[in-house]
Amino acid sequence: MTLHSPDLGKLIFGRLTLDDIPYHEPILIFTFIGVAIGAIAVLGLITYYRKWGYLWSEWFTSVDHKKIGIMYIVLALIMLLRGFADALMMRGQQAIAFGTHEGYLPAHHYDQIFTAHGTIMIFFVAMPFITGLINFVMPLQIGSRDVAFPFLNNFSFWMTVSGAVLVMASLFIGVFARTGWLAYPPLSELPSSPDSGVDYWIWGLQIAGVGTTLSGINMIATIVKMRAPGMTMMRMPIFTWTALLANVLIVAAFPVLTATLALLALDRYAGTHFFTNDLGGNYMMYVNLIWVWGHPEVYILVLPAFGVYSEVTSTFSRKRLFGYASMVYATVVIAVLSYLVWLHHFFTMGSGASVNSFFGITTMIISIPTGAKIFNWMFTMYRGRIVYDVPMLWVVAFIVTFVIGGMTGVLLAVPPADFELHNSLFLIAHFHNVIIGGVLFGMFAGVNYWFPKAFGFRLDPFWGKVSFWFWVVGFYFAFMPLYWLGLMGVTRRLRHFDDPSLQIWFEIAAFGAVLILIGIAAMIVQFAVSILHRDKLRDTTGDPWHGRTLEWSTSSPPPPYNFAFTPQVHDIDTWWQMKQYKWRRPVEGFLPIHMPKNTGTGVYLAVLSLIFGFAMVWYMWLIAAISFVALLAVAIHHTFNYDRDYYIPADEVGRVETARAGA
Fold first, then answer.
1. Do the Cβ atoms of 186 and 286 come closer than 8 Å?
2. How far is the C-alpha of 107 from the C-alpha of 494, rounded, in Å?
3. Could you tell me if 166 and 610 are in contact, meaning their C-beta atoms sit under 8 angstroms apart?
4. In angstroms, rounded to a whole number, what is the distance separating the alpha carbons of residues 605 and 600?
5. What does residue 648 show for φ and ψ, rounded to 5 degrees?
6. Cα–Cα distance between 270 and 190 in angstroms, integer?
7. Please, what sign has the CA dihedral across residues 169, 171, 173, 178?
């Protein structure tokens, strides 16, 4: 009897072979060359200017909520470029692929692109944008020195980066999912997708989802337990309210996503039958579970954007926000109802008239508090002394665009109409109408609004307006034709069309995408010009917009400890009231300030998670086992690290505050 030793290569490399490197795909080869040149240039510059030590000690290992918030937004902007490149390729393909012309994207490539586009834009653009703004602004608004769990904040960020890197790796090693961004079975089951694509999707989202869930817990604890004295719940800024409710939704919804992905992974790895159509499985159960997460996710994204609009409208109208209490109640109602509408994503499933009627009615009801918010913003602007700076322009564009998206949403809430429109481009237009017009416009308003608080100088208004107009006009060119095509019954997710009369509409949509590309380029120019002219755009007051909430009471950028003395809150618009009462900055009586120390553990855990995820994608069981054990070991070792804090001496606080008072 002879014993065969297991194939060591198989144990280490799993199913990964040289054939999984897509060197026969010219588009990917050119993309890889471009990415490699860019990466070498960036790494070369960092090395040349000897910034590695600075980046590691001041940014990568930082537990300062402000720096983590900025890093989240940088991640979102980088991933926006990748997600938009996918969108541009889809628009280009659909504009030319008619009749005998097949276009330039083969089917298997096109399917990967639209899956990656949706996945990246939601999980790695919109979510980091939201989390970054909340991270930066919310602790300052509530008068706190940091979040409740500073290390957890750093760990959450790096887990999100890890998930993003894993999804990006699929571009050059193996393939990505060809299932659509929510990976419905049976397409995502092993018989239909035996390659690495769905596994990249599962592990990328699982790793990032851990970061999001922990971040949600962290933010809730911060808002509930760390508000300044006097800041009752009904004195919290609206942005903080929306942050609280969005994070409550995260903590309630993301475990559902985690469980759903785990069950799909078991189907693929262990041969179970949760979502197959035989042996007791049911793939409609997957669709229910993914949308029980997915619809609250839409509100996780849009509620903080609503908070941004509230802050910006109030500040630039030079007025207290109209109907503060109704705004709070509307936000709470939206958060609760967001769990009662998920079935409207699949009225066509065949649940029957009674079920469809219930979810159709709840979907219409959720538009009522949203409409109340729109009226509150408009009444805030009414008879206000409106200043049309760049953040306020985004608010006005949002109100017009979001109302159109909202009305088409109410139309889709009617089950008979949805039966006609569900699988058409009308739905694509509606979804982008609310996500771009609601979430993305809000994030751009937020970046322009709080940028001077983060860096001490404003963003260049000229290039901000150039970006704004190209984005807004480009959006209408890109998506209004899709409404029309959808009404004509054109199916979504197609890469080729036979009817030549449709081509003009796709060409108009492609033209819109090019305009948006110019808008994104103008935004990059805006950042570059602002950095070059930062002395001219400098803000020494800490309050360039004449703000109303506490974050504007600190210097720009704020010191590591945020506030030398914890503020006392007596009003909703705390900073506005302090200015009315001629508040003077203290210059004496400072005490040492207790602060958390930086730690590299978050980076180590995220890198090990990335290795574990990559190993699981490629069935590298040995590497997966080693990295998982290492993950546990690093996490346990961190619990024995008691050297986690330090004190900023009183004289150093005094120096910083005296310099600030002098400015």
1. no
2. 9
3. yes
4. 9
5. -85, 120
6. 11
7. positive
Q: Which bin fits 261, alpha (ψ -120 to 50), beta or left (φ > 0)?
A: alpha
Question: Helix crossing, 107-119 with 65-96: angle to 10°?
Answer: 150
Cβ-contact 562, 554 below 8 angstroms: yes
Beta bridge partners of 98: 497
Whole-angstrom Cα distance, residue 173 to residue 84? 21
In whole angstroms, give the CA distance from residue 523 to residue 47. 27
The torsion angles phi and psi of 98, rounded to 5 degrees, stand at -130, 145
C-alpha to C-alpha distance for 163 and 172, rounded to whole angstroms: 16
- For residue 3, the model assigns a pLDDT of 45
Tell me the residue type at 135.
N
Q: How many whole angstroms separate alpha carbon 344 and alpha carbon 339?
A: 11
Q: Say how many C-beta atoms besides its own lie within 10 A of residue 86's C-beta.
A: 19
Length, in residues, of the chain: 663
| Alpha carbon separation from 460 to 70, 76, 249, 311, 445 (Å, rounded) | 18, 20, 35, 21, 13
Beta carbons of 307 and 242 less than 8 angstroms apart: yes
529 confidence band (pLDDT: 50, 70, 90)? very high
CB-based contacts of 17-25 (< 8 A; 24+ apart in sequence): 20/173, 20/174, 20/196, 21/172, 21/173, 22/172, 22/175, 25/109
- Alpha-carbon distance of 197 to 203, in angstroms, equals 10
The pLDDT of residue 660 is: 76
Residue 2: per-residue pLDDT: 44
pTM here?
A: 0.95
The C-alpha atoms of residue 632 and residue 479 are separated, in whole angstroms, by 47
How far separated are the first and last CA of the chain, in Å rounded?
Answer: 86
Angle at 146 between CA 144 and CA 147, to 5 degrees: 100
Beta bridge pairs of residue 457? 538
pLDDT category at 6 given cuts 50, 70, 90 is: low
Long-range contacts of 14-20 (CB under 8 A, 24+ apart): 14/615, 14/618, 14/619, 14/620, 14/621, 15/196, 15/618, 15/619, 16/173, 16/174, 16/618, 16/620, 20/173, 20/174, 20/196
| Angle, CA of 262, 266 and 269, to the nearest 5° | 125
